[in-house]
């Protein structure tokens, strides 16, 4: 199996293809606005929506850098600020999800159509390649998808029987 095929499989697993963990589209499918905002009473965890904003931040930043559009990339003072929510409305919750899905698919298109040399070229403004960054982002996504599932379970919103 070549590296592109492996990465495309990992990338799809994070969004819409069932594998060892549920894909984010499926995980978020029935998450309500209220569930997206919910946090445990001690407030020690981020909400589902905050986690999706965090994932979106890093994917969008990387997409802009790869496209050479660094002026349009999202900015953050630190990692904590990447969890910041837009105005808390149902419309914005839906927009956040759709934007994440869109950005994820755009990165997938780049991966799928990149020549071997492009996969290994340095990303503008960084010291790593597309291959390394997408590998890291896929692992990062899987980690946070697990947190989102856990938050859903804590709320009783996770179905007892699932296909995965």
From TrEMBL:
<dbReference type="InterPro" id="IPR034660">
    <property type="entry name" value="DinB/YfiT-like"/>
</dbReference>
<dbReference type="Pfam" id="PF12867">
    <property type="entry name" value="DinB_2"/>
</dbReference>
<feature type="domain" description="DinB-like">
    <location>
        <begin position="24"/>
        <end position="146"/>
    </location>
</feature>
<protein>
    <submittedName>
        <fullName>DinB family protein</fullName>
    </submittedName>
</protein>
<dbReference type="InterPro" id="IPR024775">
    <property type="entry name" value="DinB-like"/>
</dbReference>
């Amino acid at each position: 199996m070549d590296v592109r095929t492996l990465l495309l499989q990992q990338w799809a697993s994070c969004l819409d293809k069932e594998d060892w963990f549920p894909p984010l589209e499926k995980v978020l499918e029935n998450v309500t606005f209220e569930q997206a905002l919910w946090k445990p009473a001690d407030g020690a965890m981020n909400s589902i929506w905050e986690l999706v904003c965090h994932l979106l931040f890093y994917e969008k930043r990387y997409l802009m850098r790869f496209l050479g559009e660094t002026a349009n990339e999202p900015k953050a003072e630190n990692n904590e600020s990447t969890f910041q929510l837009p105005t808390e409305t149902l419309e914005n919750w839906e927009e956040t999800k759709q934007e994440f899905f869109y950005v994820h698919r755009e990165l997938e298109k780049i991966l799928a159509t990149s020549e071997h040399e492009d996969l290994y070229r340095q990303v503008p403004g960084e010291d790593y390649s597309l291959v390394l960054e997408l590998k890291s982002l896929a692992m990062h996504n899987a980690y946070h998808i697990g947190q989102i599932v856990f938050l859903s379970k804590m709320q009783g919103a996770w179905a007892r029987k699932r296909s995965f």
